[in-house]
Write a structure and sequence with these properties.
Number of strands: 15
Largest sheet: 9 strands, mixed
CATH architecture of the largest domain: 2-Layer Sandwich
CATH superfamily of the largest domain: Dihydrodipicolinate Reductase, domain 2
Radius of gyration: 20 Å
CATH topology of the largest domain: Dihydrodipicolinate Reductase, domain 2
Number of domains: 2
CATH class of the largest domain: Alpha Beta
Order of helices and strands: EHEHEHEHEHEHEHEEEEEEEHHE
Shape: globular
Distance between the termini: 43 Å
Strand content: 25-35%
Mean pLDDT: 96
């Protein structure tokens, strides 16, 4: 039986990426969508061929034919609706960041365990096989010992001042929205947690004083660091570089992938540079299948809900550092 998904909200990320990914997946189907505006839900359902619509999130959660729920609501609503969904017996895929802070994430994790349901954070890029390829290349020793990682994720959406990303109390800002990507990537690649964070940010009065740009350093063991920048009022970049003693790995399109040459990555050593080609795969479909297989077989997800809590712990430190302009131990 396929995993029957319900979607809470008609957010753009749901319409343009996650719902099409679930439809393309091998394990899932989207059977319902809810919006506080029923007409809006019906319009999106018609466009995406979703059979059931609801005019409230509560009504969707009462549908016994739904196995799992995807939540792309504004950040401050993640905890409330993820908990309600899990208490209704639904597995949950929640958009990143999973919550506003580590305390909320831990509360959500406890509810998932109590109700024996899966709680996953929607970092779709981690399910693409190229990161397994990169990990294997690192473990082969080709670039030597890792000395540092640099990540960048920036875009310019500053003119849309009504956007939920620019509401401070709702969890707005570039660290919440895109800074979490290089942070999670460094933790995944290094397989350890950082010890301290130092972040400098540009807070915009035009955008409810959220951080529109942030640059930071995370300190890992043995002198290794992630340096990163993230922004919502800057030219588009979506990059990752892993620097080793004998070479480096360059990922020009690190988090968002498209069907073009930028999906490949490059290895630079004393022997020259080479392109490593990777297959074009829908990472949103891969994400849905990872959850679907886990639900169907009981196989643990590669990234547990405790990973989401740990990532939020790092983000908490970054936010404090940016606000107070000081180094914060984690």
């Amino acid at each position: 039986m396929p995993i029957r998904w319900g979607v809470i909200s008609t957010a753009n990320i749901a319409q343009k990426a996650v719902i099409p990914g679930i439809i393309e997946s091998e394990t899932g189907e989207v059977v319902a969508i809810a919006s506080r505006n029923l007409d809006n839900a019906k319009e999106i359902a018609k466009k995406l061929d979703i059979p059931n619509t609801y005019g409230s999130y509560e009504d969707l959660l009462e549908d016994s034919n739904i196995d799992a729920v995807y939540i792309p609501l504004p950040n401050h609503l993640h905890k409330e609706w993820a908990i309600k969904a899990m208490e209704a017996g639904k597995h949950v895929l929640c958009e990143k960041p999973i919550a506003l802070n580590a305390k909320e994430a831990q509360e959500m994790e406890e509810v998932s365990k109590k109700n024996d349901v899966i709680l996953a954070e929607a970092f779709m890029y981690r399910y693409h096989p190229r990161y397994q390829m990169i990990q294997e290349l690192i473990e082969s020793g080709e670039i030597g010992e890792i000395r540092g990682i640099h990540g960048a994720f920036t875009f310019n959406n500053a003119s849309d001042k009504t956007n939920v990303r620019y509401k401070k109390e709702w969890g707005g800002g570039s660290l919440y929205d895109v800074g979490v990507y290089p942070i999670s990537a460094a933790r995944m690649i290094l397989k350890e947690e950082p010890q301290a964070a130092t972040v400098h940010a540009y807070f915009s009065k035009e955008h409810d004083n959220v951080d529109m740009m942030a640059s930071g350093i995370l300190e890992f063991k043995q002198g290794v660091a992630l340096t990163f920048d993230c922004g919502m009022w800057a030219d588009f970049r979506n990059q990752l570089e892993i620097l080793g003693t004998e070479g480096r790995i360059e990922v020009p399109s690190a988090f968002m992938v498209n069907q073009n040459e930028q999906d490949h990555f490059y290895v630079h050593t004393s022997n020259g540079a080479r392109e490593v080609k990777v297959p074009y795969l829908n990472q949103y479909a891969l994400q849905a299948d990872a959850l679907g297989n886990s639900i169907q077989t009981g196989t643990p997800l590669p990234f547990s809900s405790s990973d989401a809590s740990l990532n939020m712990k790092v983000l908490d430190a970054c936010l404090i550092s940016a606000d107070e302009r000081r180094r914060v131990e984690i």
